[in-house]
Design brief:
By secondary structure, this protein is mostly helical. The protein folds into two domains: about 90 residues, no CATH class; about 100 residues, no CATH class. Helix content is about 50%, strand content about 5%. A three-stranded mixed beta sheet has the order 1-2-3. α1 packs parallel to α3 and α4 crosses α5.
Length: about 200
């Protein structure tokens, strides 16, 4: 038996989501709950946030589709943005506090405009280089190492967090989107195995 979708209830709306979208949604709402710890209105705010997510998913769901995928969920979450409490100092999430470049940008995968998964694009932004140069260097390393550079790329693909979508960024192409769904699925399975 294979589970295709999970039904989630967001405030007063129920939607069906696939596994990758479910994992992303749980992480987003958990971050919001952590941000609201100690706030006396946290339940009301979380309910409003859940309703906003449900509305975004319903609005973005293609006609004839009934299951929200990661491709549908991500733009909606990007439009809503992370939860910010006025007057509070923003916490740096663990995913973005990892490695930072000299100009203060974290090392992340950038799916928008990516060819495979966005690793080269993230490295280029981190190092302040042109993405074409990084891709050419990656190809040279691929040939010089006899293909072993694929393992390094796959490791970075699994370990690097995803950069949030920037407004006006190009849409995520089909292959990077599938890579992103695969990575999120593998991370979910690894988390389930380790807990």
């Amino acid at each position: 038996m294979k589970r295709i979708a999970t039904t989630v209830v967001l405030n007063r709306s129920s939607i069906q989501v696939d596994d990758a979208a479910n994992a992303r949604l749980e992480a987003y709402l958990a971050d919001a709950a952590r941000t609201l710890e100690g706030n006396p209105d946290h339940e009301e705010i979380l309910g409003d946030l859940e309703q906003a997510v449900a509305d975004q998913c319903t609005r973005r769901l293609p006609p004839g589709e009934s299951i929200v995928t990661l491709a549908v969920l991500e733009p909606g979450l990007a439009e809503i943005g992370p939860l910010q409490v006025p007057g509070a100092t923003p916490d740096v999430p663990p995913a973005t506090s990892a490695a930072r470049s000299p100009i203060g940008r974290p090392l992340q995968q950038i799916s928008e405009g990516a060819v495979i998964a966005g690793v080269c694009q993230g490295v280029a932004r981190y190092m302040g280089l042109d993405v074409t140069l990084v891709r050419v260097l990656a190809l040279i390393l691929l040939f010089l190492t006899g293909g072993a550079a694929i393992l390094v790329y796959a490791g970075l693909m699994l370990l690097l967090p995803y950069a949030p979508a920037e407004p006006g960024a190009p849409a995520i192409r089909k292959l990077p989107l599938k890579c992103r769904e695969l990575v999120l699925f593998l991370r979910l399975k690894l988390t389930a195995l380790t807990s």
